Amino acid sequence: MRFELTDDQRAIQQTARDFLASRYSAEEVRRLALEDERGFTDEQWAAIAELGWPALVVAEDDGGLGLGVVELAVLQEQLGYALAPTPLLSTVSAALAISAAGSPEQRSEWLPALAEGERRGTVAPLYSALDFDAGAVSGTLDGVPDAAGADLLVVPAGHERLAVVDLHGEGVRVEAVDGLDPTRRLSTVTLRGAPASALESADGGALARARDVIAVAVAAESVGVAQRAMEIAVAHARERKQFGQPIGVFQAVSHPCAQMLLEVEGARSAVLFAAWALDHSPQEAALGAAMAKAYASDAGWRVPAAALQVLGGIGFTWEHDLHFWLKRGRANAAVAGDARSHRARVADLIGL
Amino acid sequence: MDLTPTPQEQAFRDELRAWIEANHPGPEPEGDVAGFEFRRAWQRRLHEDDWAGVSWPKEYGGRGATLVEQAIYNEELARAQAPSTANVLGLAMGGPTVIAHGTEAQKRRYLEPILSADEIWCQGFSEPEAGSDLASLKTRAVRDGNEWVVTGQKVWTTLAHHAKWCMLVARTDPDVPRHKGLTYFLMDMDQDAVQVRPLRQITGEAEFNELFIEEARIPDENIIGGEGNGWAVAITTLMHERATLAFGLQIRVKITLSELLADARESGAAADPIIRDRLAQLYIECEVLRLNALRGLSAIMRTGVPGPEGSLGKWQWAEVNQALTELAMDVRGGRAVLDDDRWTYRFLRARANSIEGGTTEILKNIVAERVLGLPRMR
């Protein structure tokens, strides 16, 4: 029994941390979030593709690296920590869905291109409902992440069925829409008889697993978000002086900081366990994923919210960066199933 | 990362499980004396086959188990609902403290009777005016030839009425800064100068005692770790308390939770969406507690020392166990006015969880100062 990262996993963690720190300074995150039309640049995407991140969990037979969910979680945590605006998670999510449900032909059509970073993908939110008829799909999707820079979109097509829509094709309109979190761009996608290729497999188990992997990836990102917010709060509590001393000496400040650590470490344990179970212990995986997403959804915004209180007035300003982490944490809590829905799953899975 | 047991860990679990099955003495009898003698007999049985001091080094009669094996040990005993041992504090705290700080002669003298439960240990740390601020304790020890004369009062001394030895921290030098004037003694409880009075708690029972010490005598050779070094030795004891006891306790929480889940299903309370949501949250928190503990074990096995992170686990355990018993009272609804044979007691007993073994406030201070590096309060 060894519940800690292997040397290889640590290497992925360190590479990600160094790369993201050098490419995504706070100024750059702010610039991308507030000024860049798509929220990322071609150079940044090329560098991420070069590192193999879009290929990470794609099977080797499909042109990927064939690594596990633990590696994905390690990477996602660092992305949340840096708050790097990038369409990576959306692309990985699309690849996971196609991997779970695509026929060999469909896999070879899309997966190598997604793994190489030649194409980008995204997935319709879980609550979406569309009309699917004779290979064409119609309806409106609210809040599709990263659709503006994506080439393909995975949509629901009936019970436990998915389809892939070419976002550059007929009958597709993509309009930017304001979201809570400016570091992850949202669009309204309107489909009017857009051609859609139904993914052929109806393996509900594989689809459920793909949904769990995506939920754990989001949860892992929230762990990084919470970790960073905690570090910002602790640094402030050490430096900021009031009443002639650093405010961190006051228990009304230090105890909420301790509470942040409790929530961050708990979320990290839950996420790592879920990721490991998805890789190696299928019978524990669904429960593990539901627990991880429920716990990390809460921690992912509560910790930044508590950090804001430690910062006081400065934390409420547009000028300070903390609000970006708060917004990402709260937005993450709402995607891939919110805390309440995952707790309901936990209740079902433990036989309540 | 690999959460499956190694072949060695699996073999340890299999061997222990088979042993417990063959030796489980059944449910504990009612009554303080009968219950205690039952636990003493159980501990002797454990010791005969080297299962009493699993964490202790082999040379001192232990099994030299790894931390993961210790976790498995606690898990298996809890799962089998085996009785607890009679000499809980000697095994978990006293023995490890003697092993860490004692002389060879002390190890030969004290360790074996701890394992065999021939000599029961208790802990004389807290005083009426020194709780969280332990270093302010006032019990005085004054040298008289080769002996020390001790006068003072201790409180919350579990097992004092059964104990032969008390881990006593007393002030031996009032003229130096307060952490420096303390010495760690082993006091013989078998003398008239030590009076034990039961301390009745809110559950109505008396798990704890008060100790009134009036010129008790302790020979020089009963000092552990040297005169004036009591604070460091006491910290060793407390670290073991948090690391070992907390690990066993989190497994007990899981067992209690499964009882609550069964009750909630049976009574129909689990169909209430709010109760259902809270039960799921509690289940998640229990699992997080377990997973944190496992992660902590892996970290200790790599770094070699238990860190202040142990404080996080004890704090979280207290919150989870309290939340569990509070929810159980809600599940009982209007019937919570009645004295139920399990939940009424547990609800009341859990109030102490955030006080005993380090209050939650002190644990938060430790986390803030020693893990997060926030400035010290004093």
Structure description:
The complex is a heterodimer of chains A (352) and B (378). By secondary structure, chain A is an alpha+beta fold. Chain A is built from eleven helices and nine strands. Helix content of chain A is 56%, strand content 14%. The relative contact order of chain A is 0.12. The mean pLDDT of chain A is 96. In chain B, 49% of the residues lie in helices and 14% in strands. Chain B has a four-stranded mixed beta sheet with strand order 1-4-5-8. In chain B, strands 2-3-7-6 form a four-stranded antiparallel beta sheet, with no helix packed on it. In chain B, helix 3 crosses helix 6, helix 6 runs parallel beside helix 8 and helix 7 packs antiparallel against helix 8. Chain B is globular and about 70 Å long. Chains A and B meet through helix 7, strand 9, helix 8, helix 9 and helix 11 of A and helix 6, helix 7, helix 8 and helix 10 of B.
Question: Keyphrases for this structure?
Answer:
heterodimer; A: 352 residues; alpha+beta; seven-stranded mixed beta sheet; two-stranded antiparallel sheet; 9 strands; globular; B: 378 residues; four-stranded mixed beta sheet; four-stranded antiparallel beta sheet; 10 helices; 8 strands; 49% helix; 14% strand
Main sheet makeup of chain B: 4 strands, mixed
What quaternary form is this?
A: heterodimer
Our estimate of the beta-strand percent of chain B is: 5-15%
Helix count, DSSP H or I runs of 4 or more residues of chain A: 11
Tertiary shape of chain B: globular
Mean pLDDT of chain B: 92
Series of H and E elements of chain A: HHHHHHEEEEEEEHEEHHHH
Number of helices of chain B: 10
Give the end-to-end Cα distance of chain A, rounded to a whole number of Å.
Answer: 30 Å
Most extensive interface: A-B, 43 and 47 residues
Uncertain stretches of 5 or more adjacent residues of chain B: none
Give, in spatial order, the strands making up the sheet with the most strands of chain B: 1-4-5-8
Question: Runs of chain A with pLDDT <50, length 5+?
Answer: none
User: What percentage of the residues of chain A does DSSP assign to strands (E)?
Assistant: 5-15%
Rg calc of chain B:
21 Å
Give the beta-strand count of chain B.
8
Largest sheet of chain A: 7 strands, mixed
